[in-house]
Amino acid sequence: MEGNKDEALRCLSIAQKHRNARNYTSARKFIQKSLALFATPEAEKLAQIIESEVSASAFTEGATKATGAEKHPSAGGTHHRHPNGNASTSGSAEGSSSGSEKKREYTPDQLAVVKRVRTCKVTEYYEILELKKDCEEAEVKKAYRKVRAFVFRPCLGV
To answer: Which pLDDT score is estimated for 90?
Structure first.
């Protein structure tokens, strides 16, 4: 088991880095790996510390959910789509949009492509692109660019 000691110490240092970054899931994974390879008193102590921090963060996370605050790390600064077409960041107020916004106008071709794409299942790639399954790679690329131009650009306001 002495051969695993170096790897266990490496996992211990990685777990410490993840703990410092408050990534407790990865820290727990690496500390468990370290203990499985070669149990050391430092690893056992760090495992206890991580477990106590995980339980403390679960407690504070429950408190923020009760108050309605967003805790997810990717939540800050993201845009949310709304049915009326207005996009707002998570920090802005709901009623801050002005009533003078223009409604987007779409060509009949754009509407037809969007309708066709929405009626297809997500995994029906060839149907979405209107291609045969034995087509060439260049045809796939060309059809994708065409659909992307119709479907995604109007949604992004480009």
So the answer is: 45
